[in-house]
């Protein structure tokens, strides 16, 4: 069993209907799918791989090694700790970015513009598949009529070789809190798995593809038609897996709830509450690695 691989360019041709259906199936049955021919130039993706790996070597590897030695000792003494074998830094429009290598900033700025555009195109496909007005999801993320910017962050991760994969996770199992997540994962080193029907399934590396997954807010907006699926990263004893995850989320002040049209169509009353996304993030910060359902309950009570 493998997650669906979808040719995004087919949306523009005679196979549009089948492609829409494939994406609907990816959202409804899997919560994950892999896009090829998504329109982001391979030349840019090659540069992204290069600058992120160089940045890790130049600015982060030494620090990770020092920290991980301590972590390893702690784990060997006290058993499996609630930690992740992961090096992370976050890029947003308004935070400080690494300055090495020299072409890091320019490359990642161009990448973020492309991936943001892809996120918006994918969200419009979701609008269409759900029977919502074009732009509905994005407007909801912007807080409806008020002028707010959606949150758009890019998390650059490395999962360096781990000498004790029996003792630690690369990244513990979780669902993503936000909206649409676009992941540019390593060409060769595997590790990402999703939970499907009670079994962990590999998200196979496929060079230059972009993995899309739907976070908790898409599950809520779609009134449960689309699922936010648990996933994890396994550590590897050799290989340094690189992954670049971009999160297109609601603005912190946006109120999120099931789309009225979808509630009206559903037999049952809305199974998700309306809430302010920032409040949800407060709950998520404490409960990220737990099941998602109690988070919806907790935010309902706020
Ligand atoms: O690194 C990956 O492949 C997945 C990362 C992830 O799930 C996350 O950052 O939420
Ligand atoms: Fe995730």
From TrEMBL:
GO terms for biological process: ethylene biosynthetic process; fruit ripening. One of its GO terms (molecular function) is L-ascorbic acid binding. InterPro entries: DIOX_N, IPNS-like_FE2OG_OXY, IPNS-like_sf, Oxoglu/Fe-dep_dioxygenase_dom, Plant_2OG-oxidoreductases. Pathway: Alkene biosynthesis; ethylene biosynthesis via S-adenosyl-L-methionine; ethylene from S-adenosyl-L-methionine: step 2/2. It is an enzyme of class 1 (oxidoreductase). Its cofactor is Fe cation. It catalyses: 1-aminocyclopropane-1-carboxylate + L-ascorbate + O2 = ethene + L-dehydroascorbate + hydrogen cyanide + CO2 + 2 H2O. The keyword Oxidoreductase applies. Gene3D superfamilies: B-lactam Antibiotic, Isopenicillin N Synthase, Chain (2.60.120.330). Residues 150-250 form the Fe2OG dioxygenase domain. Belongs to the iron/ascorbate-dependent oxidoreductase family. PANTHER family: OXOGLUTARATE/IRON-DEPENDENT DIOXYGENASE. This is 1-aminocyclopropane-1-carboxylate oxidase. The lineage of its organism: Eukaryota, Viridiplantae, Streptophyta, Embryophyta, Tracheophyta. The gene is aco.
């Amino acid at each position: 069993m493998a997650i669906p691989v979808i040719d995004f360019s087919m949306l523009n041709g005679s196979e549009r209907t089948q492609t829409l259906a494939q994406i609907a199936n990816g959202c409804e049955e899997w919560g994950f799918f892999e896009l090829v021919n998504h329109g982001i130039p391979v030349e840019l993706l090659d540069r992204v791989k290069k600058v992120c790996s160089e940045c890790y070597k130049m600015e982060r590897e030494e620090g990770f090694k020092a920290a991980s030695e301590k972590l390893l000792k702690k784990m060997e003494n006290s058993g499996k700790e609630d930690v992740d074998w992961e090096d992370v830094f976050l890029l947003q429009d308004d935070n400080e970015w690494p300055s090495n290598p020299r072409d890091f900033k320019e490359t990642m700025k161009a990448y973020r513009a492309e991936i943001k555009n892809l996120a918006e195109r994918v969200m419009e496909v979701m609008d269409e598949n759900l029977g919502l007005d074009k732009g509905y999801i994005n407007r909801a993320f912007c807080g409806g009529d008020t002028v707010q910017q959606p949150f758009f962050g890019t998390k650059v991760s490395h999962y360096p070789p781990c000498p004790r994969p029996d003792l630690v996770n690369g990244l513990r199992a979780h669902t993503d809190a936000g909206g649409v997540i676009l992941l540019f994962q390593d060409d060769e080193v595997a590790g990402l798995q999703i939970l499907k029907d009670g079994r962990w399934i590999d998200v196979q590396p496929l060079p230059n593809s972009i993995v899309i997954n739907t976070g908790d807010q898409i599950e809520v907006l779609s009134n449960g038609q689309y699922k936010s699926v648990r996933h994890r990263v396994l550590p590897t004893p050799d290989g340094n897996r690189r992954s670049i995850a971009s999160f297109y989320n609601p603005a912190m002040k946006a109120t999120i709830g099931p789309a009225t049209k979808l509630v009206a169509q559903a037999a049952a009353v809305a199974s998700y509450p309306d809430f302010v996304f920032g409040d949800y993030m407060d709950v998520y910060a404490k409960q990220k690695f737990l099941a998602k359902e109690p988070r919806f309950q907790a935010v309902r009570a706020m």
